[in-house]
Here is the input.
Amino acid sequence: MMDENIFDKLQEMGGKMPDKFNILEEQIDVNIQLEYFKQSKKTKKKLPKNFKIEDIELGQLENSETDIKTKKEIIIKIASIDDPKSYRILEELVKKKDADLHEWCVMALQENKMLLESSLLNENQVFISTGLGGKGTSLRYFVVLIGENISEFAEFQQKIVSSEFEYALKQNNSELENITFEENYVSINVLIPYDVPIQKVFRSAVQECNQYGGFIKKNFLVTNVKTLSIDEIKDFVEKNKLPKDTAPEIDFEPNFDDDE
Here is the structure.
């Protein structure tokens, strides 16, 4: 199950890595993340030894005639340099929130932060990145509950779901960011510490809710890749209609990158 896989992986790495895990907080499309990691790896192989900030033409970043591809390459080069100057430059770039480069700059800043920490602490760092990001030591998840034999949630059912899930999350040092009721679906955004098995938390909350009439399916949909639209949720349910309580849970595991 997903929660056990995440927990086991982190526990396994925790025995070999530092206690502090670096979680990407901003929500960045996984395709952009993959593009960044791929380009970063490619660029680093070409950089000469003792490459310094002074070797980079930083002025090109401010030049409107410089194409986006070149700017991305420069940003990756900055991120690859073990120097506080690099971090400060990337910080300023992130603050500018350039529409074409902001997410790229965020990834670069995170990479450079880990590089500096690895150098200062003389130990490997673990970078956890997901499409929905996180906060502190918590990962963000998008969860969907499906009503059982109802066309929409009644007001009292909405109150039950809200209170039971908020309570279950607080008991696990987790946070309910928002909850939305739409027809017979409930979408929830939550922040849960990486070492908390999320399925156990939600199963417990669903069980408590169902003591008041069994109005929620026991199976739920969970992802940390992106926020699904109602159309996407409906489409999935339609294509995967199965007998009661046998529909699969959608599981997307975080991407683990061990920065050596």
Observations:
- The chain has a mean pLDDT of 83.
